[in-house]
Amino acid sequence: MATRTWAPPGGGPYDLERTLCVLARGPGDPAYRVAPDGSLWRASRTPQGPGTLRLTYDGRVHGEAWGPGADWLLDRLPTLCGASDDPAEFTPRHRLVHEAHRRNPGLRLARTALVLESLIPSILEQKVTSDEAYRAWRLLLQRHGEPAPGPGPGLRVMPDPRAWALIPSWEWHKAGVDGKRSATIVRAARAAARLEEAAAMDEAAASARLQAVPGIGPWTAAETLQRTNGAADAVTTGDLHLPRIVGYALTGVRGTDDDGMLELLAPYAGQRHRACRLILLSGVVPPRRAPRFSVRDFSGI
Q1: Is 251 strand, coil or helix?
Q2: Which among 62, 121, 180, 226 would be 20 to 30 A from 167, CA to CA?
Q3: 39 pLDDT higher than 70
Q4: How far does the chain reach from its first CA to its final CA, in angstroms?
Q5: pTM above 0.70, yes or no
């Protein structure tokens, strides 16, 4: 076991769980756990190999890590926890956003620097319900991942790029993943080395690098870079719900589309993703008028 301690700069409030919760892919994510004692556990495949990271906070972030990737994870612990993010750069320009900002002063934008780790589950989430995508991620890690090093609570490390590329078609089918998404993941796995370079690029170049892979569009690229690069301006377009939520929260009007959302977010240029995070944290959403989409079971087809 290796350890490291990091103190958030400035001595102000800091919220470890809210900062990192966006890295969890559903409540049963095999690579992310919140333990009963409040500690956060993550299993990652780093450039140095598998690693497990346990984090606690008591005014300082304490990290413990196991496995070949332990040193890599601890070296990047500050940036993972938001050290490169400066909330002072954000100026709320709407009373709802101002109130959400006031209520969440400890929020930072995490930066994992691991592209495939966020890209693959984002591809799984393309055009399906969250429950479908979370189920697929769980099953694929359970069947094709490996036990995480150290004493973590049953964590699994995702497959390496070669293992992703070699998953047979029937295994994708069992996990409920259609051919279009599985083919995109295989293409991404085969280009893994080039895609991982996006973690060190600026947002525009990183987005272009990801979208060079057929099947990866602006939605998937933004969802990935929000986590891998801590991209404060990577607003998600092409989403079924986000434009409606942003539009309703800021204007009270239902049915806002992407163009309308981008117009409303224009005053937050450079910080549009943070503005969206705060709007979502406000809990203000348009009233539901239609039933939820039913979860499809591709494995039974």
Answers
A1: helix
A2: 226
A3: yes
A4: 46
A5: yes
Q: What is the residue whose two structure tokens read 């993550």?
A: 42
Query: 17: Cβ–Cβ under 8 A, 6 or more apart, which residues?
Result: 34, 38, 40
Give the Cα separation of 145 and 122 in Å (integer). Answer: 17
Pairing status of strand 32-34 against strand 40-46:
antiparallel
Q: Which SS3 state, helix, strand or coil, does residue 53 take?
A: strand
- Give the three-state DSSP class for 97: helix
CB 81 within 8 A of CB 16: yes
Contact 175, 136 (CB under 8 A): yes
Domains and CATH numbers, the chain: 2-84 (3.30.310.20), 115-147+159-228 (1.10.340.30), 242-282 (no CATH)
Cα distance between residue 114 and residue 117, in whole Å: 6
- Give 50's DSSP letter: E
Which residues are bridge partners to 28 per DSSP?
Answer: none
Strands (E), 101-223: 146-147, 156-157
Per-residue pLDDT for 115 more than 90? yes
* Spatial separation of the C-alpha atoms in residues 235 and 262, rounded to whole Å: 8
Is residue 5 classed as helix, strand or coil in its secondary structure? strand
pLDDT, tens only, 251-267: 999 999 999 999 999 99
Q: What is the pLDDT of residue 153?
A: 84
The tens digit of pLDDT for each residue in 53-92 reads: 999 999 999 999 999 999 999 999 999 999 999 888 899 9
- The first and second tokens of residue 198, run together, are 């996006």
Residue 108's closest CA among 177, 9, 201, 4?
A: 9
pLDDT at residue 291 tops 80: no
136-148: pLDDT as tens digits: 999 999 999 999 9
What φ, ψ does residue 43 adopt, rounded to 5°?
A: -115, 130
